[in-house]
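May I ask you to comment on the folded chain given beneath this request?
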Amino acid sequence: MYSAIILGGGTGERLGLGYNKVLYKVKGKTVIEHAVQKFLDDKEFNEIIVVMNRNDYDQTKVLFNDQRVRVIKGGQTRQESVYLGLKDIQLNDFVFIHDGARPNPSSKSIDSLKEKLVLGGVTLFTPVKDSVIYRSHSEIESYLEREKIGLIKTPQAFDLKEILLAYQKAQANGHHYKDDASLYMRELEKDIQLVQDVETNIKLTTKFDMILLEELL
């Protein structure tokens, strides 16, 4: 069995919402409800911890009535919020960490993460399709090798004891990271396994994403 941490600390600034983007509704449900439902649909997840901004905690808590879901208050940063979620896990030895602004993770990708999890930390990624450059303002400095470039996605999955140790080390060392895979790699000096994701696992960031999610969900 597995635990999942779903992070709901996003803003709606680039969307012009004026409120947390994970509370934006698509087809009658908030984005974070859609994200949580993907894990509820998988019977191997018996513990789902939703970590919310303190300002949005009360509004979010009433969205879920499944006993497998628990809503807790997050910290000031994503890293603090994940750490609080990790310390709140009660049932399992393996944890999936997912951004609540990605409401459409595929069951196929989640199953692939489970298969590779026995080898250590694992993350989803997608290869890039366009040419990638370093730039200086409006000028190209150099081209990168597209075949070696990937875009990191969530969920990412870990052995609970290992990722907790990595977070404890990061906190002790005053290190800050953008995602859990990079924290795991650098604090534990261990490799991360890659699983290629599907393109439909998009993150709600722009108004165009709103249109895509209306079609996908």
